[in-house]
Write a structure and sequence with these properties.
With about 170 residues, the protein is an all-alpha fold. It is built from eight helices and no strands. The N terminus is likely disordered.
Length: about 170
């Protein structure tokens, strides 16, 4: 999971990284998401024990991140009419994210004869709805955060039907 977060942040930050000043590069490398991933990797490699109070604090912080991000997304949706959740572009995104990509992944996983557990985890993760960080990143970079929030809500609601169907394809 930490590696996936690292690559997501790395890819999002990599393009401007090579074309920016040293100060901007420093702010990217000192981004809390990047720093914590590297700290986690270093801890995993070294086996460094974390004190119990710190482990509890980290676990509790991690436990509240999803509810807090959902609250932020909810506040972004204040005043957005329900009809805007039904935009065709959002449904196209949902189709690609929830149906097309998982089916392509399933085809590739069957092609390479992946182990059932690996194939199952990969298929389900590929079919997950848009992540809450997309709205937060949209807000951070001045993109359309309302649209990102609507995509998250719509794909999350639709995934209630698509994920169980994807599970039928598991070996």
């Amino acid at each position: 999971m930490g590696i996936a977060v690292y690559f997501k942040w790395h890819i999002l930050e990599a393009v401007p990284f090579f074309y920016t000043s040293l100060e901007v590069k420093k702010s990217i490398l000192l981004n809390p998401c990047i720093v914590t991933v590297f700290l986690g990797i270093a801890r995993r490699i070294t086996g460094f024990p974390v004190p119990e109070f710190l482990d509890t604090a980290i676990a509790n912080t991690g436990a509240v991140t999803t509810p807090l991000s959902m609250m932020v997304i909810g506040t972004m949706l204040i005043g957005v009419p329900w009809k805007k959740l039904l935009e065709p572009s959002i449904f196209r995104l949902a189709f690609v994210r929830l149906i097309a990509l998982p089916l392509v992944a399933l085809y590739i996983l069957n092609l390479i004869d992946a182990q059932p557990l690996l194939a199952g985890v990969s298929l389900i993760l590929t079919g997950m709805p848009a992540g809450s960080t997309s709205a937060l990143l949209a807000a951070k970079y001045g993109a359309d955060e309302d649209y990102a929030s609507r995509c998250i809500v719509t794909t999350t609601i639709m995934s209630l039907a698509t994920i169980p169907v994807l599970m039928l394809f598991l070996k």
